[in-house]
Specification:
This protein is of the alpha/beta class. It contains 16 helices and 20 strands.
Length: 510
């Protein structure tokens, strides 16, 4: 494919030059995006309700339009799903990304317009490869095929012209025909609904292909890789795909999975690149392979605002633009998009590691933390602490979830951890002690609550039976796709469900 590679390289170079300009002028890029969004949506029902045509500034917009959650905007989305046009965004919206989220079992249906597909999600995918090839000009990634482990889709019950599915499935469904020559498996297999059947068909179709890159959520890709190795009898993935050079990952932190991937793909020539994409939009790309932060993409038809996490519960919290944010503070992300999500709180929190260019790390979820006792433990704290404990014990984690043990008259509170290990530590108590120490070194609020066990006792850590999380997903109908483990919660629902499955698997063994 020399001609295709030449064309792609020329387009990549052109795009890299555009990105350099945006890096230097971030606020101008966002101002331009804001104006385009307001102008285009001024004749929609939502635009008329808030008189978009008279909005002259970002301040006007912020004063006039309240910050929203999914529950706030759901009635309007339901109307769009039933076939009504020009409600949130001009024209017809046929696709809806189904997201069950990680805070409840209730599904969310996020509208995905044509503009969002082309100017956000597809542009993000192209930019990932452009940035990768800029960092590794010797790459031969275009000489082979890309494997994406996606979700499924089916016709929406509301309207035969309205479809829903995992975002990955929607992207696969709408890709140009010619991408079939550079990706695997076939569209029919990629969109299979039953995960076990999909794995079997992927194995059949891909083991003889020249796969040079894979993409998706780390946990589900590990399931796929282990299945492929079992079916082929190979020891590592390079024995199946010797030219594999890139894993594009997102959805969850890569930290708990790093060592497992290195063991399964044992070469220094393998690269890992994080992309921050969600049902609501494609937000950021890791542009420096030596650093964990990601560049915020500012020309994808998304206008960003950021609310300081400690102000989130205020009645009318102040939202900051990219021009106003500060480094090393936790912010909840608010977005306005070319799919008609207006001042929408997506539920993620980020910290800025750099300003101009704007770079971020995902620090957690607005509802995914433990703060029952004032300890304010976020997912980023948990991932880092677990990584330290694993490094010191040689353990490797498959998945985890944690929740509080509430105080009683006799006992102080604690954190209870459900951990499924790929390689368990030799002594679980020692692992728990290291985890506790790491959390205290990372989070001063946690350290204060642990002081002499005044508020929090030492953490309780359970080693779950292999397959516990898989069975939990199976029981929820959430196998594959972009489904994520609820890492931290202020309630005990998830860990109690996990523990029941663990006990069932253990009794079956006996």
């Amino acid at each position: 494919m020399p001609l295709l590679t030449s064309i792609i390289n020329w387009l990549n170079l052109k795009r890299i030059n555009q990105l350099e300009l945006i890096r230097k002028h971030p606020f101008e890029a966002q101002q331009e995006t804001f104006v385009k969004l307001i102008k285009k949506a001024s004749d929609t029902e939502f635009g008329k309700t808030y008189d978009f045509s008279s909005i002259k500034s970002i301040t006007d917009f912020q004063k006039r339009v309240p910050i929203r959650t999914y529950e706030d905007i759901k009635p309007l989305i339901d109307r769009v799903r039933k076939g009504e046009n020009n409600i949130l965004w001009p024209g017809e919206i046929r696709w809806f990304a189904k997201s069950s989220g990680t805070t409840s079992d209730k599904s969310k249906f996020i509208p995905v317009s044509k503009e969002a597909l082309e100017e956000c999600h597809f542009r993000g995918g192209r930019d990932v490869l452009a940035i990768y090839c800029q960092n590794y000009p010797e790459s031969k990634i275009y000489s082979g095929k890309a494997l994406t482990l996606g979700g499924s889709h089916r016709i929406d019950n509301y309207n035969n012209q309205s479809y829903y599915g995992d975002l990955s499935a929607i992207l696969i469904e709408n890709l140009p025909f010619w991408t079939e020559f550079i990706r695997t498996p076939s569209q029919d297999v990629a969109l299979l609904e039953k995960f076990e059947e999909k794995l079997e068909r992927i194995a059949r179709e891909t083991i003889r292909e020249n796969v040079t890159s894979i993409a998706g959520v780390p946990s589900w890709n590990l399931v796929m890789i282990k299945y492929l190795l079992k079916q082929t009898g190979k020891q590592n993935l390079l024995e199946i795909w010797p030219n594999l050079e890139l894993f594009i990952h997102g959805g969850v932190s890569f930290l708990p999975y790093t060592e497992q991937f290195r063991n399964l793909i044992p070469t220094e020539k393998m690269h890992y690149l994080e992309a921050y994409n969600a049902s609501e939009g494609f937000f950021a790309i890791q542009d420096n392979p030596g650093l964990p932060d990601m560049m915020l993409m500012l020309d994808y038809g998304i206008f960003y605002e950021f609310v300081p996490l400690d102000k989130l519960n205020d009645q009318n919290p102040e939202a900051l633009t990219v021009e106003q944010v500060e480094q090393n503070k936790n912010y909840a992300i608010i977005i306005s998009t070319s799919s008609g999500l207006w001042r929408y709180m997506i539920g993620d929190t980020v910290q800025f590691t750099s300003l101009v260019p704007h770079k971020i790390i995902i620090s957690g979820r607005t509802k995914h933390f433990i703060n029952v006792f004032g300890e304010e433990v976020i997912v980023d704290n948990a991932d880092k602490a677990l990584k330290i404990a694993c490094e010191k014990t040689g353990a490797q984690i498959t998945d985890y979830s944690a929740a509080p043990v509430y105080m009683s008259r006799e006992e102080q509170g604690a954190h209870e951890w459900m951990i499924e290990f790929a390689i368990p530590p030799a002594e679980l108590d020692h692992f728990a002690k290291l985890l506790d120490q790491a959390l205290m070194s990372i989070n001063s609020d946690y350290e204060a609550k642990r002081y002499k066990n005044l508020t929090l006792n030492k953490p309780i850590v359970h080693q779950l039976e292999p397959g516990t999380f898989y069975q939990w997903f199976h029981s929820k109908g959430k196998l594959g796709g972009q489904n994520k483990v609820p890492r931290l919660s202020n309630e005990r629902k998830y860990i109690e469900e996990l523990y029941e499955i663990h006990k069932m698997l253990k009794s079956n063994e006996n």
